[in-house]
Specification:
homodimer, about 450 residues, MgtE N-terminal fold, Tetracycline Repressor, domain 2, 22 helices, about 65% helix
């Protein structure tokens, strides 16, 4: 067994030196032995000229896999530098779904050039068909390479027919069975075929209980079905149940990761998907929207405090706890909305009503609110011996925590009912609203207690 | 093909009525046709008595799969209600890794009872061996069911030997090859075996380039290897490269999801993994720690403002923008730390130094800081015609944004270098620190400008 390859800085440095020395043989020798995913990782970090030089030393099949594995932004830049013919040669070796993804990243003009250079016209047609599906549908994610047999065959016929089909299919997980009309009627495992004698009939092998998805289904839904039923591949059919393609678990892993990353960034107030390797401009642009919402919240907060300027002039110590009230409202709101957003993302069947969720959050907020208020009361009393301020802050705190908890629970539920992504609620909106309302509560309670 | 089963409230209600009527046949008929994952989902939401009644109507094999699919907290409660014999019967049908997971959830006393009831003593031994591995290692996650052949065999021998082994293995992805010492030396696909003639030698079939992991490797690292190389299964070996088991992608999907959920909750200030279905106490306990950190931050904030009480007494309008300064520091800190945390989680090879990351964040913070300060300057000038306050707030804002951005970048990098989970930095710590430092900056700049 080969020692597992460790990508390290020394290796990359050595490679760069080969490039600058123009040593084609050395590069060929040390790169073609690597896994395409490792080569892609190297191309992701060297500069464009170096990447092109290395890429052109690769065997054709490896080059095509490397192209698939590159990071999207690197690939985009990279493909601008390659000719349509070079891209088409790589496309010829790809699975149709990867090919479609990659061609869609090109300009319309270059797409046409690449299409005209693709030698396998069937492949070109499948790619064009996949590109017609809307983004984020099962159709856009499926591969048209799969193994399919007829229900009238026997095992021997299957094996000889599969020898032809299997060339195009990198991983065979299951064999699909269709009838005369190409309607999906069942499937069986490679294992059962291996153990069957040549004259066993397909109809005695296959199971009719097949989970399938429609080409128009949302890919995130496909992901949760595959996850729930522990499927490695799922067939994709059209409205008439004709078999169109299959989606494999490695794509779903990417979908799930993307989804998680998106939710995470949304909760952190980043409005579009960015990576630390993106440009300063891209990152700034993705982060500015939340800051502007925060700025608006701050201005509204200033307005609220301004209303109580007189109160503050008389009792300036009330200003001390403004940050505490604002921060706690934001914190509780983020916590409660995060729990709802996650439960909305995971549960397909949830018997709890909005009312029961609010009741539960009321319980949680009450417990935590009481704990925090009691603590802050004694801290203020102990540190400042100010009973009145202690009462104001601790009463406000529990009120703010209750409000923030319920509001943080309600908003994502309402958004989700209106088919808006509930994760939107976790970031800017909840925090800002809770800041402003929290201040209002604080000064109103202060007004009642002090005057 | 069977219509895909839609779990809905009506169905569950009907089932509950069958239970209360004690109609065993009706339950048997409508439940055993379902997929175990669907049955588990039903048991997750009905009450314990109903769940037990339904569970006892299941065929033995289905019952064991349902037990695996139940939510952890439901299963724990559920297993307390089952006898050791009932659990052992289910364990007999499970893959070793699922069995080990489930037994570990029992009390030590009940574990012993269950072990003594397991009929297949080999199965009991494998389970005990798996339970000896530390949590979150590859060893704890692997299944000991896999297909292994000797390098001296031919294809015909493989098939007849595999007929025996394959009974225990639900999904065969690859066939592993070992030598006399049971050392893993290669693997080949089921597809290549299917197409080989009976007298083809194993040594002409197998590839020696096998990615494997050690039993002591961390499961999250295993996940990123499988993801990177698009693997459906990976063999697990010991220090001497003896083959011990395999990890399949469905487990990794769970690992990745758990990891994402944990990071998400950490960023939202929830300190242990909770679900919306957990008890009010559990949720409160998971949320209280951040609130206490926030409370401490609020008290420190009060101390800082208290230092400038005199300044605030003379210029009470400075209090208006306390929430804005505090909120913006927190927001920027969360954004910048989130980007670093994600890049640390994804990139295995990162050439960027701490210095270059800080330089980039400086650029981003400068752009967004400038944008926000210019806006707030004109807002304050326009709304309040107060040039001095406008200057104070806008200067402080850009200083706070720069500080928060750099601090938010630095903290997760430092934590990660010290092998502490950098996600810890995204929630309470960064926000609280930034609140306090932000206030200090604001009042110091105010002091310079006003006095």
């Amino acid at each position: 067994m080969s020692e597992q390859f460790k990508l390290d800085k020394e290796f990359v440095e050595e490679l760069k030196q080969f490039v600058s020395a123009g040593n084609e043989t050395a590069i060929y020798d040390c790169v073609n032995l690597l896994h395409p995913a490792d080569i892609a990782e190297i191309l992701d970090i060297v500069n464009l000229e170096e990447a092109k030089f290395i890429y052109r030393r690769l065997d054709e099949e490896i080059a095509s896999e490397v192209l698939v594995e590159l990071e999207e932004d690197v690939r985009e830049m990279f493909m601008k530098a390659l000719s349509a013919k070079e891209i088409a040669e790589s496309i010829d070796h790809m699975d149709s779904d990867d090919a479609a993804d990659i061609i869609s990243e090109l300009s319309v003009e270059k797409q046409e050039q690449v299409f005209s250079e693709i030698e396998d016209k069937d492949q070109a047609d499948s790619i064009a068909a996949l590109m017609a599906f809307e983004e984020d549908t099962a159709g856009a994610w499926m591969a048209t390479e799969f193994i399919v047999v007829k229900d009238t065959w026997n095992a021997g016929q299957c094996i000889s027919e599969m020898r032809k089909q299997a060339e195009d299919v990198s991983y065979v997980y299951t064999i699909y069975v269709t009838d005369k009309e190409e309607t999906l009627i069942g499937m069986f495992s490679l294992k059962s075929l291996l153990f069957a004698s040549d004259d066993t009939l397909v109809k005695d092998l296959y199971m009719t209980d097949v989970k399938s998805v429609k080409a128009t289904d949302n890919i995130e839904e496909v992901g949760s079905i595959m996850k729930k039923y522990d499927l490695v591949a799922i067939p994709v059919v059209d409205e008439e149940k004709k078999l169109l393609g299959r989606i494999t678990i490695d794509d779903i892993v990417d979908v799930l990761e993307d989804e998680a990353a998106k939710d995470y960034q949304m909760a952190s107030g980043i409005s579009e998907k960015v990576e630390s390797s993106d440009s300063i401009w891209t990152i700034s642009r993705a982060r500015l929207p939340w800051l502007l919402v925060g700025l608006l919240g701050g201005v509204l907060g200033a307005k609220v405090i301004g209303l109580f300027e007189h109160q503050l002039g008389t009792f300036p110590e009330m200003a001390f706890f403004i940050p505490l009230i604002a921060a706690m409202g934001g914190n509780v709101g983020v916590q409660s909305s995060a729990i709802i957003v996650q439960s909305l993302a995971n549960n397909t069947l949830d018997m709890g009503t909005t009312y029961s969720k609010l009741a539960k959050e009321f319980g949680v907020s009450l417990i935590n609110g009481l704990a925090c208020s009691v603590i802050i009361f004694f801290v203020i009393w102990g540190l400042m011996s100010d009973l009145r301020l202690g009462m104001t802050v601790s009463l406000s705190l529990i009120a703010v925590i209750l409000f923030a908890g319920l509001f943080g629970t309600l908003v994502p539920l309402v958004l989700s009912k209106r088919k808006i992504d509930p994760a939107l609620a976790t970031g800017p909106f909840i925090t800002t609203m809770n800041d402003v309302v929290g201040l209002l509560i604080y000064f109103l309670i202060g007004y009642v207690i002090y005057f």
